[in-house]
Specification:
- It comes from Dyella telluris.
- By secondary structure, the protein is α+β, with helices and mostly antiparallel strands.
- It is about 30% helix and about 30% strand.
- Strands 1, 3, 4, 5 and 6 form a five-stranded antiparallel sheet that branches. Strands 12, 14, 15, 16 and 17 form a five-stranded antiparallel sheet that branches. Strands 2-10-7 form a three-stranded mixed sheet, with no helix packed on it.
- Helix 5 packs antiparallel against helix 6, helix 7 runs antiparallel to helix 8 and helix 8 crosses helix 9.
């Protein structure tokens, strides 16, 4: 009996417990998190060249909608420049498992500076989805890249790889009408397709003597197309040269070497040199600044210009020439007499005779010899070639002169030689000059204590 009673009591307790649990409400279920997918890929795919810029595209998709723009972090990869592009996010629509997914596409620009294997690490993207702005975070998968080493040619220190590159310059003002104190501004712009602005090298403006150089901060920007895609970068460098003194100046040409990303060939882009001339102070800026603009300030302004200074100098020179006109006339007469004597001297006549060394005409050669003999006679030399041969020459000189005379008067028995005649006269002339110098240095008084 006791066993039956225990069985009934246990059954009754079980029924009461089941009834009690049946009255309690079921536990609340947590809402399912909205789905979001992230796809990371290289565009275009393939092996990179060291120094080449490529795109890392991040596609963020959801079957719902984004309440605001997804947040992407700033990434850091050792041995590479990596930055989030400022281009407008692209809108995506894809069908996955029969369901429509929409989203946005963001782009990182990466430029590897080292060769070998490189990896974009996993990173977290946070977005708010749906009308409730539910926060969702997704971790991306790492992306592996392969980078090939780049061999730089001689003279190139930095690698610049681009689809195309253009270098232009603007110089203001033009090279005309420049004066001391003016400023020449040289603006150089580098535009590269497929290369971000941060990879473009700075333009080096050399210092020029006579000019003071002032540099300006560069202006860089990345360009995008009509669809928000990255196109390339540009960099503008500006330098101002202040003219310190008058003269001609040249700003050297600027050459940039770069590699074509399509053909892998090195190319050069150059802007030409700049030439200009600077005069003294500008007419618009008188050397003596006066606040008034009356007659006297305008006159001082004109006299301080290049034209005014030139007119004043010409007037001073004309006045000095008029004041010293008599002395100038005497000096002019002396100079004319000196020039006449020099042109009609014995030395000038002998130089003219020496130029007839290869003469074939007996008349022309004899005229040159006669002119020299007469000029030498004025200086105390013998008055004929025969006397020259007897006093300073030799039998060969006399024989040549006789042969020349026979050829001149049609009685040529012996052939004459112009080179032999010139050499004989030159030797006789040297002996005459030597004796003349000895006579000039001979003492005027006899020795005080003669011997012998």
């Amino acid at each position: 009996m006791s066993v039956i009673m225990k069985t009934w009591l246990l059954s009754l307790l079980y029924v009461i417990a089941v009834a009690a649990h049946a009255d309690e409400p079921p536990p609340a279920q947590l809402p399912a998190q909205p789905p979001m997918r992230v796809l990371v890929h290289q565009e275009p795919a393939g092996t990179l060249m060291q120094g080449e810029t490529t795109r890392i595209v991040v596609d963020i998709l959801t079957p719902d909608f984004f309440a605001d723009a997804p947040l992407l972090p700033e990434l850091h990869v050792d041995g590479a420049y990596l930055s989030l592009s400022d281009e407008t996010p692209g809108h995506l629509v894809k069908t996955i498992d029969g369901q429509t997914w929409s989203g946005v596409s963001r782009t990182y620009l990466i430029t590897p500076l080292m060769s070998g294997a490189m990896e974009i690490p996993s990173f977290e993207i946070t977005a708010h989805l749906g009308a409730d702005k539910t926060p969702v975070s997704v971790q991306t998968t790492p992306l592996a890249l392969q980078v090939r080493a780049l061999v730089l040619p001689a003279g190139v220190t930095e690698a610049l790889i681009a689809g195309s590159l253009k270098v232009t310059q603007t110089v203001t003002p033009s090279g005309e009408g420049l004066h001391v104190g003016d400023t020449v501004t040289r603006r150089v712009e580098i535009s590269a397709e497929g290369a971000p602005a941060m990879m473009l090298p700075p333009t080096e403006f050399p210092a020029i003597g006579g000019l003071t150089l002032y540099g300006a901060s560069p202006i860089t920007r990345d360009a995008v197309d009509n669809h928000g895609g990255f196109v390339g970068g540009s960099r503008v460098d500006t330098a101002s040269y202040v003219i310190d003194r008058r003269g001609r100046y040249t700003l050297p040409a600027i050459t940039l070497r770069w590699m074509d990303s399509q053909t892998r060939e090195w190319r050069e882009s150059t802007v030409p040199a700049v030439h200009f001339h600077a005069w003294w102070g500008a007419p618009a800026k008188p050397r003596f600044a006066l606040p008034q603009r009356g007659f006297m300030p305008r006159m001082i302004e004109w006299f301080s210009s290049d034209t005014g200074i030139a007119v004043v100098l010409l007037c001073v020179l004309a006045g000095l020439a008029w004041y010293f006109r008599e002395a100038c006339q005497r000096q002019w007469a002396r100079w004319k007499a000196w020039r006449y004597r020099r042109r009609h001297s014995e030395a000038a006549a002998f130089r003219a005779l020496s130029r007839q060394r290869h003469a074939s005409s007996a008349a022309i050669f004899a005229a040159a010899v006669d002119t020299w003999v007469r000029r030498a006679a004025d200086d105390g030399a013998p008055a004929s070639v025969t006397a020259w041969a007897d006093q300073y020459g030799d039998a060969a000189l006399g024989g040549q002169w006789n042969a020349l005379q026979d050829a001149l008067y049609g009685q040529g028995v012996q052939a004459w030689s112009a080179p032999a005649m010139v050499d004989g006269l030159a030797a006789a002339r040297r002996r005459w000059k030597h004796g003349l110098r000895r006579w000039q240095h001979r003492p005027a008084l006899p020795p005080l204590n003669p011997t012998g």
